[in-house]
C-alpha cells in the first residue's frame, strides 16, 4: 500500500489551505491489530484491537499532530519550534523540524527521558535543554519562552496538534466500519484523549458513525492528578512518558470522559509492567510502558465484568518499546555467556 501524508488523506477535515507547506514523513495509517486475548476477554466474546502507534515514523502517535503543527508553523514563517516533553514530543518535533528546515528547541525533565527518545531527539539535531524539574516545570518555561521569543510552540496546547491527532479516530472507524464500544488509552498531558474524542465527535456530527465509543483514560497511580482531582506535585511512575502532575488539557479529558460516559482511572506500575510484558510475550507487540497502561486498565474492567459481552475495545498503543530500552533492561534477565559450543548452547536453550 502506498502511504500518503496524513494531511493529504484528511485535507478536507484539517485546518490547511492550498498555501500550507506539507511537512510529512508519511505518518499515520498505522495497523489496527486484533489481539488474541487476554483470556478474560475471549470467554465473553469481547474483542480487543491495538492501534499500534509505534509504527509511526518516529515511533509514537505524536507524529500525527506534529505534521500539522510544524506545517502550520512553517506556513506562518516560523524559524524555530519549541516543546517541553517527556521524550516523544521532542523526538517528533526534532524530526519534523529537521524535515522542514527549522530549528527545534526542546526542554526535558533531566533524568526522566527514556534513552531511545533522547537519542532520536539529539541525532535529529534539536537543541536539547534539560531542566532540573519535571515536565510540568518544563512546560511552564516553554510557554513563556514562546511568548517572549519568535519561536512556535508545538506542545499539544497548540490546537493544530489536537487536530492532527484526532485522525486516529478516523482510521479506527475506517478499519472497523463503525466506532468501537470502548476506546482506551493512557493519559499524561491529556492532549491525546481530547483529540480522540474530537475525532469521534466529528465523525458522529458528519453522520459517519451512529454511536460514540466510551472513552477510558488511564493514568499511572503515582501521576494521577485527574483521578485525584488535584495536581500532583511530584509525579512518579515507571511510565515516564506520562509522568505528569498537572495536565494542560485537563478539561478536555474531563469532557471526553463525561460526554462519552467513560472513565479516567489510575493503574499501578505493577499492573502497567504486567500488561507491558503480556503485550510483548503473548501478543508480539513491544510497546513502551506508558502505552501498556491502556491494557492494564482494560484488564481490570474485564476482571470486574464492566465490559459488556460482545463489545469491541480499541487500545491506543501510543509508543514503540524500543523507545525505552532502560525499562526492558531492568525488567528482563540476560543469562551469562556460555562457551561457543553446540552442547553448551543446546543445554542453555533447554533442549537437553
Ligand atoms: N503515551 C506516550 C508514549 C506518550 O509519549 C504520551 C505523552 C502519552 C501516552 C500521553 O499522551 O500527553 O496526550 O495525554 N507524551 C508527551 C511527550 C507528554 O512529551 O512526549 P497525552
How far from one another are the termini?
45 Å
| Uncertain residue ranges | none
Work out the helicity level: 40-55%
Order of adjacent strands in the largest pleated sheet = 1-2-10-7-8-9
Q: Give helix and strand order, one letter per element, not per position.
A: HEHEHEHEHEHEHHEHEHHEHHEHH
Shape: globular
Strand content: 5-15%
Report on the architecture of this protein.
The structure is a single chain. With 352 residues, the protein is α/β, with parallel strands linked by helices. The model has no long low-confidence stretch (mean pLDDT 97). The chain is 42% helix and 14% strand.
List keywords for this structure.
15 helices, six-stranded mixed beta sheet, 10 strands, globular, single chain, alpha/beta, binds ligand F0G
Q: How is the secondary structure organized here?
A:
Blueprint: H1 6-9, E1 32-34, H2 39-42, E2 47-52, H3 62-75, E3 80-84, H4 88-100, E4 103-109, H5 115-123, E5 127-131, H6 135-148, E6 152-153, H7 159-165, H8 167-176, E7 182-186, H9 191-205, E8 214-220, H10 225-228, H11 250-260, E9 263-267, H12 269-283, H13 289-303, E10 312-317, H14 325-331, H15 342-348
Parallel strand pairs: 2-10, 3-4, 3-6, 4-5, 7-8, 7-10, 8-9
Antiparallel strand pairs: 1-2
Helix pairs in contact: 3-4, 3-7, 4-5, 7-9, 8-9, 9-11, 12-13
Brief description of this entry?
By secondary structure, the chain is an alpha/beta fold.
Amino acid at each position: 500500500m502506498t502511504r500518503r501524508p496524513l494531511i493529504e488523506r484528511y485535507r478536507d477535515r484539517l485546518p490547511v489551505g492550498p498555501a500550507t507547506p506539507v511537512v510529512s514523513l508519511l505518518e499515520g495509517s498505522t495497523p489496527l491489530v486484533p489481539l488474541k486475548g487476554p483470556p478474560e476477554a475471549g470467554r465473553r466474546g469481547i474483542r480487543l484491537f491495538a492501534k499500534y502507534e509505534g509504527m509511526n515514523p518516529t515511533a509514537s502517535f505524536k507524529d500525527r499532530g506534529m505534521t500539522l503543527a510544524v506545517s502550520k508553523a512553517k506556513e506562518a514563517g516560523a524559524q524555530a519550534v519549541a516543546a517541553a516533553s517527556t521524550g516523544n514530543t521532542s523526538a517528533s518535533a526534532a524530526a519534523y523540524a529537521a524535515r522542514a528546515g527549522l530549528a527545534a528547541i526542546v526542554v526535558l525533565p533531566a533524568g526522566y527521558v527514556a534513552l531511545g527518545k533522547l537519542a532520536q531527539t539529539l541525532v535529529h539535531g534539536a537543541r536539547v535543554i534539560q531542566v532540573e524539574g519535571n515536565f510540568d516545570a518544563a512546560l511552564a518555561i516553554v510557554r513563556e519562552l514562546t511568548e517572549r521569543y519568535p519561536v512556535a510552540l508545538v506542545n499539544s496546547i497548540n490546537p493544530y496538534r489536537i487536530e492532527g491527532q484526532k485522525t486516529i479516530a478516523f482510521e479506527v472507524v475506517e478499519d472497523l466500519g463503525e466506532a468501537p464500544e470502548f476506546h482506551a488509552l493512557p493519559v499524561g498531558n491529556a492532549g491525546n484523549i481530547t483529540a480522540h474524542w474530537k475525532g469521534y465527535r466529528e465523525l458522529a456530527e458528519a453522520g459517519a458513525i451512529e454511536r460514540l465509543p466510551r472513552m477510558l483514560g488511564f493514568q499511572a497511580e503515582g501521576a494521577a492528578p485527574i483521578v485525584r482531582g488535584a495536581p500532583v506535585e511530584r509525579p512518579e511512575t515507571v511510565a515516564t512518558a506520562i509522568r505528569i502532575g498537572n495536565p494542560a488539557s485537563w478539561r478536555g479529558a474531563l469532557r471526553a470522559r463525561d460526554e462519552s460516559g467513560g472513565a479516567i482511572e489510575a493503574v499501578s506500575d505493577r499492573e502497567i509492567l504486567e500488561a507491558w510484558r503480556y503485550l510483548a510475550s503473548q501478543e508480539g507487540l513491544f510497546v513502551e510502558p506508558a502505552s501498556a497502561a491502556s491494557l492494564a486498565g482494560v484488564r481490570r474492567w474485564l476482571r470486574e465484568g464492566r465490559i459488556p459481552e460482545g463489545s469491541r475495545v480499541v487500545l491506543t498503543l501510543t509508543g514503540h518499546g524500543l523507545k525505552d530500552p532502560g525499562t526492558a533492561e531492568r525488567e528482563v534477565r540476560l543469562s551469562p555467556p556460555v562457551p561457543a559450543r553446540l552442547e553448551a548452547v543446546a543445554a542453555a536453550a533447554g533442549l537437553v
